[in-house]
Amino acid sequence: MAPAVGRKIAVVTSCAAVLFGAAACGDDAGAEPLSKSQISRAVLSKGDMPGYNFFDESRAKTDKSARADKKACQPIVAFAVAPEISAYDKRSARQSISKSEKPDASYQLILTSAESGSAAEDALKDLKSAVSACSSGFNLTYSDQTNKVRRVTSEKTSSDDEINILFEYQAGMKIRYFVMREGAALIRISAATQYADEFVAVPKWIIEKQSQKLEKVAD
Q: Where in the chain does DSSP place strands (E)?
């Protein structure tokens, strides 16, 4: 989810982008990568979650021009805001998700495989370091527009293989990015309200169901 300031979140979700198989987290640095076919079968899709609508964005055209004005902040762009610019984009799949009735938020799920568990682990470490270094903000250029990011912070998570990012633009738009590593795979989920005027949580059941489906395909 890499919006230009002022767009409604429905447009934001469809324009965004992709992050990064699997054994138990923590001791799987040698995990093998998942193929494009495996990623396509592993990503959540219609029928996996009753009560939610899915729209496959895997073939949508992407803009690979996203850049931070500070080098230290680039991992935030590459692994959260616009992961289609990452080297792992060729092994990825993405879905936009919303509730079937009375949607109060929109989510974008991106599943990608790095070339190994250690590579995915390094990507997550780089992302965490960037969030710490760029808490006071930076300028983000995307689709020929430059917007000021006011602040980037993270909330505590239950695992070292996760990061929960709060991303706020100068104009007030607020988006949450959750990134989790499983083996060589990275699960990235963005969440925002219709007008991105407040932070909204990523539902646990989306994370759990995606993790379960990924494990089945990777076994």
A: 52-56, 67-68, 92-99, 106-113, 138-142, 145-155, 162-169, 174-182, 185-192
